[in-house]
Fold this protein.
Amino acid sequence: MVMVDMKSFDEEEHKKLTGKGNEIVIDNIKYLAGIGKLYEIRAVIVPEVLDNYNNVNNISKLISSLDRNIRYKLINYRPIGVRKDMIENDTPSNDVINKLENVAKDNRCINVVIV
């Protein structure tokens, strides 16, 4: 089984973070789900850096279209060990995380985990 990190569903945001587009990541997610090998998709929630609502909304729709049982792990950004010149941000509030969890569940994801 495979776990995949999805940095951003948005192509431009993904390029900003990684220097590459996300087409290969999305294709791999579809392929792995199609052969029954995708266990989990992980996404880090970073306030004010990422469009977290758009990411969670679109990733959860993708998951539910492939297999609603795929685990969707929403990871709270934590600034510990992050270079300040890269990202200087705080952990998202519980309110933000709860709203994003509800977005995923409203999109029919049944295995949403908050870390």
